[in-house]
Amino acid sequence: MTTEHPDRQQQKVKEFMSLLPLTLAIAGLPDAEPGKHFNEGQLEARTTTIRTAYRFARQLVLEIAK
Predict the structure, then answer these.
(1) Which residues of 8-31 are buried (b: 16+ CB within 10 A; e: fewer)?
(2) CB neighbours of residue 34 within 10 Å
(3) 54 falls within a domain
(4) Residue 2 — φ and ψ, nearest 5°?
(5) What whole-number distance in Å separates Cα of residue 23 and Cα of residue 38?
(6) CB distance 24 to 46 below 8 Å
(7) What is the pLDDT of residue 4?
(8) Which one of 1, 27, 45, 46 has the fewest CB atoms closer than 10 angstroms to its CB?
(9) Which domain holds residue 47?
(10) Which residues of the chain register pLDDT less than 70?
């Protein structure tokens, strides 16, 4: 469980969602083929890629804001 204030958590979620299009563009992940699903290993790999891409997207926006 997290001890963060609910307002801070909500702010982080909003930030993530606002950066999601840029994050996904940076990640460059292909969509699943229609009717096919990713297995657990593929989902974990994609999650890691998205996390890394989010860090880069956030860093880019902070650098631009300077």
Answers:
(1) eeeeeeeeeeebeebbeebbeeee
(2) 5
(3) yes
(4) -95, 150
(5) 20
(6) no
(7) 75
(8) 1
(9) 10-25+39-65
(10) 1-2
